[in-house]
Design brief:
Layout (H helix, E strand, L loop, with lengths): L5 E5 L6 H14 L7 E5 L5 H7 L5 E4 L16 H6 L4 E4 L2 H6 L4 H13 L3 E6 L3 H5 L3 H13 L3 H7 L3 E5 L13 H19 L1 H6 L1 E5 L7 H5 L6 E4 L6 H12 L2
Parallel strand pairs: 1-2, 1-8, 2-3, 3-4, 4-5, 5-6, 6-7, 7-8
Helix pairs in contact: 1-2, 1-12, 5-7, 7-9
The chain binds 2-phosphoglycolic acid.
Amino acid sequence: MPRRPIFAANWKMNKTAREAKLYCAEFSALGIDPSIADVVICPPFTALDSVRTSLPQTIGVGAQNSSNHLSGAFTGEISIGMVAETGCSHVIVGHSERRALFNESPALLSEKLDRVIECGLHAIFCVGETLADREANLTQQVLLSQLQGSLKPILSELSTRWTQLTIAYEPVWAIGTGKVATVDQAQDAHHFIRSTLSGLLGPQAGKGIRIQYGGSVKPDNVKELMAQPDIDGALVGGASLDPRSFYEIIKNGASQ
Ligand code: PGA
């Protein structure tokens, strides 16, 4: 079975709930054909509800993070139950900004993944190397330790629920920098991730799990990325903040 493309918008800390509503009205008016791809919009927590109620149900809504704890004395945190109640379908786990700026470790991310999966939502789990890693020829080693460190502790759960998992390969040096990985660099990393997934979860999961590319994806570079055999979609930051540009990314990418 061919893998269905999946395009997700990661707004990061941008747009108030009011601004999000305006975006959704404009984006909905563009009339994305839901048969061509899964489309997910991930606004800040405060806009989850207004985004969910402003978009057709054919478009998914995702949180950018959620707590590893279910409830309790964790001031400022948001639990998976709270996220789920807004009607979210997805949660981004382990974005490189969370790893680098908030010290999120593979073990912590494993717990977060576990909460998302057991709650019945879909996780977009981000992995990727820094420029220093790549220059030291450590890309595969870093990807392997990120994947093993977070997926191994929850293998038994994932073995039956891997359809709830999407991986986003985001080379840190390509995020928000305008530097896109070459298609060969991206394809090599995606292929490596896919074989690692096969090793961990078996060939069926390895073939079936979708792997998005992220890092300076734009309407004019998405086509060549999507032409690679192991690239199944994109996680888009900056270029997703404008509804038309996110729409063009989906349209150009899914037609590949
Ligand atoms: P970018 O961000 O598209 O602005 O590079 C991607 C991401 O961080 O998910």
